[in-house]
Amino acid sequence: MRLMQLIKSLNKFKIYSDAADTSMPSEGWSKKTPLGINAKQSRTIDFEVKGISCDSKQVSGDFIFIAIKGVNADGNNFIQEAIEKGAKAVIKSPDDHVPASPKNIVFIEVADERIALARLAAEFYGNPSSKMRVVGITGTNGKTTTAYLIERVLKEGNFIPAVIGTINYRFKDKLIPSKNTTPGPIELQSMLADMLKKGVNYSIIEVSSHGLDQNRTDQINFSSAIFTNLTQDHLDYHKTQEKYFQAKAKLFKNLGDTAFAVINNDDAYARRLKSLSRGRLISYGIENKADITAKDIKLDLAHTEFNLAAGDFKTNLDIKLIGRHNVYNVLACFAWAVGEGLDLETVKLALEKFNSVPGRLEKINSNAGFSVFVDYAHTEDALKNVISALRQISKNRIIVVFGCGGNRDKTKRPKMGSVVSKLADYAIITNDNPRCEAPEEIIEDIKKGIEGDNYCVILERFEAIKKSLSLAKSGDIVLLAGKGHENYQIFKDKIMHFDDCEVARQCLKSMNY
Predict the structure, then answer these.
(1) Could you confirm whether domain 362-510 is CATH 3.90.380.10?
(2) What are the residue ranges of helices labelled H in 312-343?
(3) Cβ-count burial of 61 within 10 angstroms (0-12 exposed, 13-18 middle, 19+ buried)?
(4) I want to staple 265 with a disulfide (CB 3.0 to 4.6 A). Which of 70, 107, 283, 465 is the partner?
């Protein structure tokens, strides 16, 4: 695709180049529309675009480089490097400095470089989301499990689904490690284009608040959107709960008229979100009146059973997932299937076949006589949900190993400490991913929310897990919380391999279980 064709996807912009005809305005800026340059100048600076990137290290010959002002780095500082690597066009915001004497380089000024990036990426890869069904799932908790459930339902119905989410990006026989829950626009559009070529007809995307706030999904044509819940998280980035909500709400505000939204009616933000959503609405819930409901819920350590009602369709569901929070995830999936018009008996069959999600109340099998679960819970609400779920199905002790991530929302640390100390019988506070913070300071923040003395601190996570298992007696439950599917720990100076499931199995084996 040629440059002049590609930048038609942008809205308002200005363009200049020392390669253009001398009839350009003396200050180098053109105010003409729609392209801002005349036909003769277009021929002078036009070229076949081989790729686009916002990472100067990924730039090659005949690329467009987009200078993004990021959270940790400013792409404007890497314009010269991008040019040296072969970029022939640079997209930037209006007030940024241009390197001296950029020989034959096209500079394009835009009001918002992130929006420009999303538009260029979609155009460059042929707008693949308009040629498949795309499901967006957002919320503080439950996104990953809901995505897995929808994937299972679609496979049961002989569709070809793909998933882009927290654990990995996957479709057909391809598995890509996940760096971000929602990747950037270039990677996102590139993957969708690849998926389309491989015959994928449904793409399920976990849409993070960061991704929405940074316009990563701006040009994705979502056929449906699911809201799971909203509790405190990511305030290190969003600063306030209201801004966090508004970021999530963007997914629903931007839906097309033919799309539909699935809303958790039991969440405090449901009413506001429904008033902001475009497209038709489908609700689900347990406590409040909704289109899809669950009643007579029975929980134990092996499964969950409940009566589901979806209009005239009523059935008893017996699923292998445990806990009330997973009933909500199943309801979200079922509500989406209703909106999509899928065969509901097939949906029921798929849900009852479904086993588990990596790192989401994942049970570690052993003959120890006590139960061990690994879960990704790393917020106050997620910990409350998981521990409460375990409390409902066991009268014995619950021992929790947990920590908090460094360089993340500090205000949730004492709240997490409070929840664990109140709901668990005993807690071992340890390292999560301390990143660049001192682990001892993170733990001190956690301890501020603890009122009792039913805890200890063991900094090294391996030793903390080992200790928790040694404390467990017959019938007890040990919950290893916070890291879930992750197989690494991030420290200031290194990233080391660490997998809670592996460590738990290793420790149990050493204990002859």
Answers:
(1) no
(2) 324-340
(3) exposed
(4) 283
Write the class of the CATH domain 3-124.
alpha beta
Phi/psi-derived region of residue 368, left when phi > 0, alpha when psi is between -120 and 50, beta in every other case: alpha
d(CA 28, CA 194): 39
Burial class from Cβ neighbours inside 10 Å (0-12, 13-18, 19+) for residue 303 reads: middle
Residue type (1 letter), 238: H
Q: Which two tokens stand for residue 177?
A: 């490690």
The residues pairing with 91 across neighbouring beta strands, listed in sequence order, are 66, 108
Q: Does domain 128-353 have CATH number 3.40.50.1820?
A: no
Please state whether beta strands 292-299 and 280-285 pair in parallel, antiparallel, or not at all (unpaired): parallel
Residue type, 201: N
Chunk the chain into consecutive blocks of 10 residues (it has 513) and report each block's average pLDDT, rounded to whole numbers.
88 71 37 40 77 96 94 88 94 75 79 93 97 97 96 98 97 91 95 97 96 94 97 82 93 96 97 94 98 96 95 97 96 98 98 96 94 95 94 93 96 96 97 97 98 96 98 97 96 96 97 94
CB atoms within 10 A of CB 199: 10
Residue 153's Cβ-count burial label (10 Å; 0-12, 13-18, 19+) is buried
Contact of 149 with 52, CB cutoff 8 Å? no
